[in-house]
Amino acid sequence: xxxxxxxxxxxxxxxxxxLRKRMIEARRLRSANPARSAALQLSALFASIFGRMxxxxxxxxxxxxxxxxxxxxxxxxxxxQRLGISPRYVDVVLSQGKVPYATLFEHIRxxxxxxxxxxxxxxxxxxxxxxxxxxxxERSGLWSSLTQCHVRGDTEEDTDIRLLRSTLAWIxxxxxxxxxxxxxxxxxxxxxxxxxxxxxxxxxxxxxxx
Length: 210
Known about the structure:
Blueprint: H1 15-32, H2 34-52, H3 71-83, H4 90-96, H5 101-110, H6 112-125, H7 128-140, H8 143-147, H9 156-174, H10 184-191
């Protein structure tokens, strides 16, 4: 009896066969493109070299440490806090009892932190109305109007008078025209009766006199 299965059966491909086919194609492509093969080899070489290099140590960032004050300056700061003044004026206040106007106005002209501390000291020595004027000076930046209140050679009392005059002039300038007090001549004209009015002085024999 003859065998009827003369046609050979096709062998079923497995995963191994498909993987082997891909490897053969990849080798064929590498042999066909030598530049690509060289680039892959160089990249592999660089990766191996840099992979062996040690990583740089992280740079430690130093935190800010404020400078330490000397014992003398620390004591001066404590005295300034008790007196309510700036540390720059401690020596002057301890020796003279107060900061002279000459020093304060010189610091006003220099500006910056000196002006701030000097203005704080001037506020303590002027009346309350003058403090409002000083606030106006600071907001508007009219420092020349303030420095004109002190002239070299003036006494402390002269500077106080100049500060009061500048304050009064500022208050008068703020008033509305209706609120201004009339001058003596204007007041006298206001009190005079108008001609022909009932308030005009009449003779004794005037029949229309009430």
